[in-house]
Write a structure and sequence with these properties.
501 residues; alpha/beta; Rossmann fold; 3 domains; eight-stranded mixed β-sheet; four-stranded antiparallel β-sheet; 17 helices; binds S-adenosylmethionine
Length: 501
């Protein structure tokens, strides 16, 4: 049982962990990232082999990153161990009861991985998941506008909650699991003792705990893993991706006008349909603008292969082979042809016609991306015919009517690589790959002439004049060239390679 520490004690221990080098920077330097390794994997054994010294930092890694019982080095003061026992992160015999991993400037408690070889396998019904890739991606995608009260839906151990406190006055953190809320309370009290009063914890299913309220912002990392019946309760009981659908549709109802929901999700593609079809029906009639960034897709059998082991250390008790076969059969019987993953942004906008964009995430969310995401969203509004404060003055095609009048220039810095493709007949064609962005990195691959054309945008004249100049200079069928050059220029603007700022 975790016991939230008092502010002063928490401050001392944070200082201590920092001083001992048990920090995100140090773990990243030593082990490439802060993802705790899955027991029994080469990464786990490697980290074990690299933390054999009797230094304090190695002891902390072994306790709280690997989940083993280190020989307690001299360097660990008795007082520190008893504080850990008081908090409940070590049991009475000095064994770790949780994972406790640095993330950013915080330390996040979650359930530790337990497998059958553990001397005391104690499988919780509803394990609280640590900071995994999904939480990190949502965190990077989250935009940082200031807001009065933000909802963290399915808050788990409160990773997003802590982050939201930097921009929101208050956070409502809700979860179905009481254990998760206990972990979130601990993480809040330990890392941000001064902000405890700014968070309201609510227990319940989906949006039910807030059914009479609306929010300017909702953040959600739902339990999206698509399992037939979870060996542990990390997935919803609802068929396939039904829980994501419900959270999106119910979440949209709980947004203020202009309010934004941001979420990471997975969904299925059903045989004979496209990857957009299913999501399109979810987004219909919500009175929301929507931007879905499609990040990945997998064949059902590859998905099962990847996921089936991930659940093991969380306490899977059944046989791996039968779980694998049942899972594959589940997808087959539901005609699932692929599983897709991505990031969704929704904004409530009742008047006018809403825009919905489906895009492939060409590039990656390599770091915090708020500024870049907000800049792209501003462009989408600028290009949207139905998006205007005064609907009667809507432009038929804002790209032609409004954006082409802007003195666009090349955004900086752009990275550029050149390459060549060689066809079966030996024919060679050159290409240029451009990429931009520090957090949200975007790429385009274009002909070398287009890359040169891009450099003509220097902000000295309206975009229309730059395009006209190029068309005259290019020679050939003017209408065709103008159309193609217009299309590419628009794409470069939408992706942020051209800017009006
Ligand atoms: C993947 S975890 C996300 C934790 C955290 N938000 C993060 O980003 O790391 C999903 C959380 O959703 C919660 N959950 C599952 N079903 C739910 C439901 N029907 N209503 C509310 N929360 C639910 C789980 O208990 C779990 O804590």
């Amino acid at each position: 049982m975790l016991k939230s520490p008092g502010g002063e004690k928490a401050g001392e221990i944070r200082e201590f962990l920092r001083g001992a080098g048990y920090t995100a920077e140090e773990l990243t330097r030593r082990f490439h990232n802060t993802d705790p390794p899955i027991p029994g994997t080469p990464r786990w054994f490697r980290i074990e082999a690299e933390t054999e010294s009797d230094s304090l930092s190695d002891a902390l890694v072994r306790w709280f990153f690997l989940g083993t019982l280190p020989a307690v080095p001299e360097a660990v003061p008795t007082e520190l161990r008893s504080s850990f026992m008081d908090f409940g992160v070590l049991d009475d015999s000095g064994r770790p009861t949780v994972q406790w991993v640095p993330f950013g400037s915080d330390w996040i408690v979650s359930d530790r991985w337990v497998d059958k070889s553990d001397p005391d396998p104690n499988f919780p019904e509803d394990p609280v998941i640590g900071v995994g890739p999904a939480a990190v991606h949502l965190h990077r995608f989250t935009t940082r506008e200031s807001a009065a009260t933000v909802l963290d839906l399915g808050c788990g151990g409160g990773v997003q909650t802590l982050d939201l406190l930097d921009t929101a006055n208050r956070v409502v953190a809700s979860d179905l699991s009481r254990r998760a809320l206990d972990f979130a309370r601990f993480n809040l009290a330990f890392n941000r003792p001064d902000d405890v009063e700014r968070v309201e914890f609510l227990c319940g299913d989906g949006l039910a705990p807030v059914e009479d309220r609306t929010f300017p912002k909702i953040i959600c990392n739902p339990p999206f893993i698509l399992t037939p019946s979870a060996p542990v309760s990390v997935a919803s009981e609802e068929l396939l991706d039904g829980l994501c659908r419900r959270f999106i549709r119910d979440g949209a109802q709980r947004l203020d006008e202009g309010g934004v929901l941001q979420m990471i999700l997975e969904w299925v593609e059903i045989e004979g349909t496209s990857w957009q079809d299913r999501i399109a029906t979810w987004l219909k009639d919500l009175s929301c603008d929507a931007w879905l960034l499609h990040a990945n897709h997998q064949a059902p059998i590859s998905y099962v292969e990847t996921r089936v082991r991930e659940l093991d250390p969380l306490g899977a008790e059944d046989d791996l082979g039968s779980r694998f076969r049942n899972w594959v059969q589940y997808f087959r019987s539901n005609q699932v042809s692929a599983i897709h993953g991505g990031l969704l942004w929704l904004r409530k906008r009742t008047p006018g016609r809403n825009w919905i964009r489906f895009e492939d995430l060409e590039g990656e969310m390599a770091g915090p991306s708020s500024t870049e995401v907000l800049d792209l969203l501003r462009r989408f509004d600028l290009l949207d015919p139905g998006h205007s404060a005064n609907p009667s003055s809507d432009l038929a095609d804002p790209w032609n009517e409004r954006v082409l009048e802007l003195p666009l220039r090349v955004a900086q810095p752009i990275r550029r690589q050149t390459g060549e493709t060689i066809g079966g007949d030996g024919a060679r064609s050159a290409f240029v790959r451009l990429d931009i962005g520090s957090g949200f990195r975007r790429t385009v691959t274009v002909d070398p002439e287009i890359a040169e054309f891009l450099m003509r945008f220097d902000g000295s004249q309206p975009a229309r004049d730059v395009i006209d100049g190029f068309v005259r200079h290019a020679g050939g069928p003017e209408a065709e060239i103008r159309k193609e050059v217009g299309r590419v220029s628009r794409l470069l603007f939408e992706k942020g390679f051209l800017t009006d700022a």
